[in-house]
Specification:
heterodimer; A: about 325 residues; mainly alpha; 13 helices; B: about 350 residues; two-stranded antiparallel ribbon; about 0% strand
């Protein structure tokens, strides 16, 4: 296939948007946490838990949206734990986050094995159906791309706008940015630094979990071990790439997904002339390159990873 | 309620911290055992029996502890200098790959030099893998947590590429595994008819050497100074960048040695399922040891016995084996919390 033809095909961009969806949720979630000054390395585990809880809820007879909601609640609870350890207690956000990832991942596997002890092929559920035809069908090209998406992808896109609006246009968003930049000043204004940070981590973690649930309830229809496969860590790189801005986070996720989609097609085009592992490495190599390029002018939230204790410097 | 820094931490409290943390972790995990319908005493009994109950059990636990000591030391050394090396898993595989590569290459080395060459190759490979992120950190300000994490995936894919390609053992019936190390490149068995091998000696020697380095040498002092306050260290004329790079080489090298220990001691060849997460396990070990090099020995024994014991527990009472990972993760979080309360006291108002 001609490369230009490939680049403008609606099929490619429909795939890109699908691959990008969990990354959009995860990156937005991490962005919210970091904007409030809390690095959340629990993301990989929270996404795993979201994938498991969402899937399990639907498998036990729940509605698909109930599955999404259950994942969000599970994520929020883990966020509460991460927040409790890192915000009022001020523990190392790096090590705590890793612990959270280990805990959430192993709890997911434990629960999965407990409920389904002797199953070799993972049982499947009926996932979200593609949107298909609607008023958007009349749009040329874009109609085709939209028709192949499922509802959670649209939710992800709406959330990008919502998060941007809240962060830059509402007092709540101002409070979040303030506790991430200058907690002492926020405290002097009467803002509860602890409260805002806790809430931000809980909301952010809920987003991450929904990203995981997208994988089991839309992209695939079953839960597999290691199914997050590093997507969470990539979201952390994407937040830096996005300079902590929701719009750029969407752009980063799409760009990343584009290379991911291209990678599978290039693999087919080269017909096995190169080891497939080289293509699989691409996303990770690109993430590191993106970090190197962006870190030079990265405007980290000033209080990121700095615990705030009233009256202590 | 607020936290107030203690002026000094009494010795008894420092010693109580790991004990209290582990007790809490076992208590919390007991809830999961109850949920899965097993009896807690029976389950923990089976676990202890599986980890220490026989000569075989003890050697299995020690075999598991060896790589954990090395990855634990890797984390402890790096964390002391506030280099957040989360890439232990990748460095382990990098070390193992280099070890197998040197060990099976037609270099014509005399037998006596083969094992030292293999060990050195593994350590250098691990060190170089962490040097990259450390340079990116010191030169460009790229957060090393993300780069070391992402490198894990890159290294694993590279290993996969090598053992399915140029290093694939043609005798492995199509199974992706590397060529087997020659006998002269293998670490000796310590006890016949068990899997316990010289990797344990390697790990213990490393722990003692790192302890001496940290407490008795200028570099050890500089490392601790950089970790305690990079600004103050720079102010007093230390080159924090140089210290960081040395720390990276040492930390990565230790994790690489864990890979050497596994291929040259246990398996003889390299596969992709060689490590059940020794990299992240090392982080837990280091925290349980409160970053003390000799404490790492105890921490590694603890984590290894949880993993070995959990297999036995799972067989005996039917609790999913993932309980081991839960227990280890909860231990880490409890340990972090307990360490905090050793440094701070809770005050009303």
């Amino acid at each position: 296939m001609d490369i230009i033809e490939l680049l403008i095909s609606a099929g490619l961009w429909a795939t890109v948007l699908r691959i990008a969806t969990p990354l959009i949720f995860g990156t937005l979630g991490e962005l919210i946490c970091e904007r409030a000054g809390v690095l959340n390395l629990g993301i990989e585990g929270i996404m795993t838990l979201g994938a498991m809880v969402g899937w399990m809820t639907v498998y036990q007879g729940g509605d698909l949206w109930v599955g999404i909601a259950a994942a969000a609640v599970a994520g929020m609870l883990v966020g509460l734990l991460h927040g409790a350890l890192t915000v009022p207690l001020g523990l190392s956000q790096h090590v705590t986050g890793l612990g959270i990832t280990m805990l959430a991942t192993s709890l997911s596997y434990f629960a999965y094995r407990l409920l389904l002890p002797q199953i070799s092929t993972p049982p499947s559920v009926d996932p979200f159906a593609p949107l298909g035809d609607g008023w958007w069908s009349s749009l040329p090209w874009l109609g085709q791309v939209i028709g192949q998406q499922t509802a959670p992808t649209i939710l992800a896109l709406v959330l990008v706008l919502a998060v941007a609006w809240v962060l830059y246009r509402t007092p709540a968003g101002l409070a979040v940015r303030m506790v991430g930049e200058n907690p002492a000043a926020a405290d002097a204004q009467g803002i509860s630094v602890t409260g805002v940070r806790m809430l931000a981590v809980m909301v952010g973690s809920a987003f991450m979990a929904v990203g995981g649930a997208f994988l089991t309830l839309s992209a695939f229809n079953a839960f597999f071990f290691n199914m997050i496969g590093g997507r969470g860590w990539i979201c952390i790189a994407l937040v830096v790439f996005a300079s902590w801005r929701p719009g750029k986070a969407l752009l980063g996720a799409l760009l990343f997904a584009f290379f991911d989609a291209l990678q599978t097609r290039l693999q087919q085009m080269t017909g096995g002339a190169l080891p497939y592992q080289l293509f699989l490495m691409l996303p990770y190599v690109l993430s590191i390159l993106a970090l190197v390029v962006m870190s030079r002018r990265a405007a980290y939230p000033q209080a990121l990873m700095v615990p705030f204790r009233k009256g202590e410097r | 309620m607020r936290l107030e820094r203690r002026t000094e931490t009494p010795a008894w409290l420092s010693l109580l911290v790991p004990v209290a943390a582990l007790a809490a972790a076992f208590a919390i995990s007991a809830v999961l055992i109850l949920i899965s319908g097993a009896s807690v005493p029976a389950a923990y009994g089976a676990m202890a029996d599986g980890a220490f109950g026989s000569r075989f059990a003890i050697t299995e636990t020690l075999t598991r502890a060896a790589p954990l000591m090395l990855t634990g030391l890797a984390a402890a050394v790096a964390f002391r200098a506030r280099l957040w090396n989360i890439g232990g898993e990748g460095q382990l595989y990098g070390g193992a790959l280099a070890a197998v590569w040197i060990g099976t290459a037609p270099l014509g080395l005399p037998d006596a030099l083969l094992l030292p060459a293999v060990i050195l190759a593994g350590a250098i490979a691990g060190g170089l893998l962490l040097l990259g992120p450390a340079v990116l950190k010191t030169r460009f300000g790229v957060d090393e947590v993300v780069t070391t994490l992402l490198l894990n995936f890159i290294v694993l894919l590279f290993v996969s590429m090598m053992i399915e390609g140029p290093m694939k053992d043609p005798m492995a019936m199509g199974w992706p595994q590397s060529d087997t190390l020659p006998m002269a490149a293998e670490l000796p068995r310590l006890i016949p008819r068990t899997r316990l091998h010289g990797g344990l000696i390697l790990a213990l020697v490393a722990a003692v050497l790192i302890y001496i380095m940290m407490t008795r040498t200028v570099l050890g002092f500089e490392m601790r100074a950089v970790g305690a306050s990079p600004r103050a260290a720079r102010f007093s004329g230390m080159s924090t960048g140089r210290v960081m790079l040395l720390v990276a080489l040492i930390s990565g090298g230790l994790a690489g040695l864990a890979g050497v220990s596994e291929v040259a001691g246990r398996t003889g060849y390299l596969t992709l399922d060689m490590s059940p997460g020794y990299g992240t396990g090392g982080v837990v070990v280091a925290m349980l040891a409160q970053l003390h090099p000799l404490g790492v020995i105890l921490g590694a024994l603890m984590v290894a016995s949880i993993f070995v014991g959990a297999d036995a527990m799972s067989r005996a009472v039917g609790v999913p084996t993932y309980i081991a990972d839960v227990l280890v993760a909860v231990s880490l979080l409890c340990m972090l919390t307990a360490m905090l309360f050793a440094r701070y006291r809770l005050r009303r108002g």
